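Deviations from the work plan: none for this task. Representative record:
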Amino acid sequence: MTTGSFTQAQGARLILQHRAPLYGYIYACMRNHADAEDVFQDVTVAVLESIKQLRKESEFFVWAREIAFRRLMSHVRKNQKETPLNPHVIAAMAEATDRAEQSSPFSQEREILLECLEKLPQQSRDLVLLRYENSNQRLKEIARKEGLTTQAVYSKLKRIKEILRNCVSRNLLKETL
Amino acid sequence: MSLPEISTDRDWLEAYLDNGLLPAEREKLEKRLCLEDDLADLLVSIVNYEAVIQEWAALQATSSWSWSFQMPSRSSIRSLLLPAAKFIAAGLLLLTVTAASWVGIYYLAAPLFNKAPSTPIVTPTTLTTKSIAVVKMIFEGELRSQEILFVVNDPLKMNQQYHLEKGLLELEMNSGVKVVIEGPSTFQLLGLNNLRLLQGTITANVPHNAIGFTVNTPTIKVIDLGTQFGVHVNKEGTSEAHVFKGIVDCFAAEGEKTISSAKRLVKGESSKRQVGGELVQSDTKSEELFATCLRQQAGIKSLSGDIKFLPQMPASLGLCDFTDNNFMHLFVEQQELVLPKDVTCSVPVQNRPGRANEKQFKSGIIKKGTKVNVYFIHFDAHCFGHPNFSTEKTFFAAECSMVFKNKVLGILQTDGQLLRTDPFLGNPGTRYINDKTGQPGQPNVNRGADDTIRLPLDDRGINLNWNLSRKRIIGADSMRVIVATQK
């Protein structure tokens, strides 16, 4: 376990290591990937700027998440009219995120999920990419492009996510046994 | 409720994330999130998956076109290995920085400085076998490593030393960083997010998921904090870093070891260090030192005539705020923009026979969702009050050609078209209208271009012949050009 003064390179490594739950927390509060990415970038810069304040590597996640919390609250104050965020939800999700990371860090699940994504059939991969790549297209737009109903796209994505969850569960179980 | 099949808590939470709930439903769910730990925990699980899927999709997008060209060549066989390499890359991304120190790469840096560019570096075979970047483009040059010639789509390996004698090279690191290298340059890829430049000129575009991208040179070390920046190393090892967007930290370094505290550089700032010297501000003009790389990164193949490309847009392009009697200026307003709405503009007439006076454009629409680069061309002569203003020379002409990597989809050349699109196609940090041009929405804003605008037959460029008068009225010539991002 690393302790003491951390360098920015170490900070960058820690951010990458904890990217999913940190970004996930911000996304849960913002509910928009483009905005979440902006806030995540702000948080990253803030974390790297103040990385010397970190004392123990084991404290990194909660410390960085706290920075994210403050950034989100600042966002609430500045942009309340444009993007109404609920500060109570921001606080509740902070607790839930910390709870989840303490009980079972997401890093192992992340690796398995990436493997499962690679195993998806091409058609499913294409649909996931359409939904998440850059523009983060809304279901209606995807449905129009694919010549499907919104409900059909929603159901397909729901099914793909279910397949991914099952895939991760199976592989986690295999690694536990 | 706007989405179907909402029955479980998971469905409710997914609809919540999709902003698909009615206000009353959202409020009710948010109240539950604050009171029920299990529901909040479920949302954490859902968003963690969302974060990884988003990360995976971004990783696919950064190298998707390298898969799309399936040709039966050595390159394509190598490209088939890319998914595996990328997967390894995703897993190893976490180890970017530490990997370098495991193999003691950095201690090799100091002796390298005095070696000839072609000197190979011996490194552990376990790491040298990993490909960590792909050649995306080579223009008027040859990329070699130990006499092996590399071509487009070839993967590049860690620790191997590469030399580009002349021309331009575009690389995409597996971390998503896009690097443009201008020859003559010699470099090594030290890790998944780390490059050593021994000599030459590079610019790097770093996406947020690759923050921490590091460039080592014989005398400095530059760590990116989410940005676009350039590094130049001359034959003597004197190195300089220039920031075009965002922030970097620059250290004086000898080999692996940084020997100074970080000097933080923001947009427009630079730092330079010669062997044994201190970090000082560079007096070299960024746009000149990195002109070729920056143009390439901006999707511009070539420029000729009375036009200059500037990588950074000025704070104001209002009338008389950014003037030049001799040159038009070309700026990139937005790159890789997904159009948020349909854009009505002048689009190229298809299948033109190429006659002298044929119609080049017609009214058309570029559809919402199209991914584009947006450029702004600006020609404004010195106004009354400027030291170079002359009452004798009141007529200014400029002629130029530009070639883009991809096709021009449309142009916006009237005041109305420019005004309507400033808010979403323009650069957010630039003011386009000032008190000389009037307020948005008013007529006679007087910055549209109505002089000669011609397209080459392949639509991949624009030829302009613009005239400007400073006699009775003040006005500028401006035009917004929308270019496709893919072939």
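Residues 150-176 of chain A form the longest helix (27 residues).
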